TrEMBL record:
Species the sequence originates in: Mycolicibacterium sarraceniae
Protein's UniProt name: AAA+ ATPase domain-containing protein
This protein's UniProt keywords: ATP-binding, Coiled coil, Nucleotide-binding, Repeat
InterPro entries assigned to the protein according to its UniProt record, in alphabetical order: AAA+_ATPase, ABC_transporter-like_ATP-bd, ABCF, P-loop_NTPase
Every AAA+ ATPase domain range: 162-323
Transmembrane region(s): none
SMART domains: AAA (SM00382)
Coiled coil: 35-69
SUPFAM superfamilies named in the record: P-loop containing nucleoside triphosphate hydrolases (SSF52540)
GO molecular function, a single term: ATP hydrolysis activity
């Protein structure tokens, strides 16, 4: 039995069990097949919700139409009563019969509306609230000819040009993190811009006692604009005033990511060191969403092949010996 967020490993399993909303469900196949099954389930659920919503609308229209019809009938009965169209006892019998009929119709339509609302609630319960980051980030203004960094390479420095996306891969312990630290410290390679954002493996640079907003907003900046942008990172409403220490791991990660990408001025180059190590699969999806909206250069160290495959990389460099990079073969 394996608990993991490693997609490649999960795809080697015979069965997949998911813990969601305090329930454990099992599927007889690997992760990829389970994802396809879940997509089909959610598509069917969305279709069921659409059909149930239509049924609710029809029931409400029928109820309104019935009330209009009954009101017209009541007005006609009152005119007949006022004009003495029939003996009083006969008209009273008509009124009693009409009242019974109206009550029965209302009950039937109310039951139908309640049943429709119940079916809608059941259908909506099958949907999921797995939200995605959709962000409109500040433009870091990185033209294609802009030189941003030089990375050490066996056959001469590799220049990071414009909004390139570069992955660095290699065995654990070979020195990938040390290379990033040396690059940022000016001890290996060379940074050609001072607008660099860094997301280390451990998110420990946040002010635990300060609020989400205070961690992300810059002094004198537009707090309302920052709040609007934080909402796109799924940090909404009063949650922006909560101390970081009270947040979940996924929320803390989104705060760190928002602080990195919403910096003023925005970074022209961001450096990510094993960003998916401690993330669940939903948070990995959110990271991919955010990076898709970023228009600067990216250098990312990762051993997560599935994550790297989703980043639209320009090149992949491999570290086979400490401190030296080569084109991955």
């Amino acid at each position: 039995m394996v608990v993991s967020h490693d997609v490649a490993l999960l795809n080697r399993m015979d069965n997949t069990a998911e813990l969601y909303n305090h329930r454990l469900t099992s599927f007889g196949g690997p992760y990829g097949e389970w994802c396809a099954h879940l997509d089909n389930e959610l598509a069917a659920a969305a279709q069921a919700v659409s059909a149930a919503e239509q049924t609710v609308r029809v029931a409400k229209r029928q109820r309104a139409a019935a009330e209009t019809k009954l009101a017209r009938r009541n007005r006609k009965a009152q005119r007949d009563y006022d004009n003495k169209r029939a003996p009083k006892i006969v008209m009273n019998n008509w009124a009693a019969s009409a009242e019974v009929s109206a009550g029965k119709l209302r009950t039937e339509l109310d039951d139908k509306a309640v049943a429709a609302e119940g079916a809608l609630q059941v259908a909506e319960a099958r949907l999921r609230n797995d939200e995605h980051i959709r962000v409109d980030l500040p433009d870091p203004t990185v033209p294609a000819t802009r030189r941003l960094a030089e990375l050490p390479r066996s056959r001469g420095p590799l220049v990071v040009m414009g909004p390139e996306r570069i992955a660095i891969v290699g065995a654990n312990g070979i020195g990938k993190t040390r290379l990033l630290d040396a690059l940022l410290a000016g001890e290996a390679g060379r940074l050609l811009t001072d607008r660099v954002g860094y997301l280390p493996q451990r998110i420990d640079s946040l002010d635990e006692q300060a609020s989400v907003l205070d961690n992300v907003a810059t002094p004198g900046g537009d707090a309302a604009l920052v709040r609007t942008r934080l909402a796109r990172f799924l940090l909404r409403g009063d949650s922006v005033y909560r101390p970081v220490a009270t947040l979940s791991g996924g929320e803390r990660f989104r705060v760190a990511l928002a602080r990195l990408l919403l910096a003023e001025p925005p970074p022209q180059l961001i450096v990510l060191d094993e960003p998916t190590n401690n993330l669940d699969l939903a948070s990995v999806d959110q990271l991919v969403d955010a990076l898709a909206a970023y228009r600067g250069a990216v250098i990312v160290v990762s051993h997560d092949d599935d994550f790297l495959a989703r980043l639209d990389l320009d090149r992949t460099l491999s570290m086979r010996r400490p401190g030296v990079l080569d084109e991955a073969g």
